[in-house]
Every structure is written in structure tokens, then in C-alpha cells.
Amino acid sequence: MPRNLLLAGATAMLAGCAGMAGLHPAPPPPAVTAETVQATQLASYVNALQTVVQGTPAEQAEVLAAARAGYEQARQGPAVLRYALLLAVPGHPGHDAQQAQRLLREALARPELLSPIERALAAVQAAQLEQELGLAAENTRLVAENQQEQDRQRNDSSSAALARRLQDELGENTRLRKELDEARAKLDAIATIERNVPDRKQ
To answer: In degrees to the nearest 10, what's the CA dihedral of 170, 175, 179, 184?
Structure first.
């Protein structure tokens, strides 16, 4: 068989196979599952949090502004959660633990608007914020008590100094009264002598 015929036959066979492959449709894309959606949501939150923690000030401001705009537009569900999570991150200018706690309570008040992973994330962050704010309140209380104790000690020192001064003045008054009594006694003695002097002359 001539070589050209062999090549022509092989080409025809390959073309036939290619045509048969075209008869079979491509496999459908994988179905979107709840796990896939949750993983995508979690990755989105983590990326935003990472930007707020490690990004430049401009990147931080951009992420926070976008989250705030989303919250102001929707005011429910994931938009509230995203903004709360970003506000809860310490160490950046937009950190506001009290506002974050309020938003998390707002988000958890309507759990049906959150996915299971979002509810879990909100609950964990809310517990952490409660502890953080509790420690801050305790620190404020201790500082106030310390200031009050210092004020009391200063007042006690002032009172003690005043008491010492009063005692010194009482002692000085006693000394002066004694000297006055002695001076009066001398004057009385002199007056008595003066009265007796004319009697002797007579």
C-alpha cells in the first residue's frame, strides 16, 4: 500500500475520532454546595481582616470605607457582620470595640440572615469583645480606685500636718499663757512691794 494512502487513512481516522468526541458534551461544572459558599464567605472575611491588620493605612481606610458603605446600604446580615469584624480588629485607627459589639449583637439578633459559619464567627468575636471590654472596664475601675487612694493619702497627710500644726500652736499658746501668768505674778509682787513701801516710810 502506498505511503500516501496510509497517511490519508490515518488522517481520516483521526478526524472521525475528533468528530465522535464532539458528539459527547463537556462535563458540567461542579455544583455549588453550601460548603463551597461558606468557604468563599470565610475567605472573603479573612482577606478583609488581613488587609486591616497588615495593609498600608490607605488599604486599611479603603477596606473600612467599603465595609461601612455596605453596612449603611444593607444594615443587616453579612454586611453588618463584615463591618463589625473589621471594627473589632485592634491596632488600627478605625478600631472601635464598643461599636463592633453593638453591631455583632445586631447581627446575631437575626441569625436567619447569616450562614452557619457566619453565626459561629460572630459568636466567637462577640465573646472576645465582651472579654476585652470587661478587662478595659476593670482597668478603668482600678485606675480610679488608685487615684482615690492617692487622694485619700494626700488628704490624710494634709490632715496629719494640720493636726501637728494645731498641736504646735496649742503648745505655743500654753507656753505663752504660762509666761503671761508668770509676768502677772511678778507685776502683782511689784505692786505689793510698792504698796508696802509707803507704810515703811511712815
So the answer is: 40
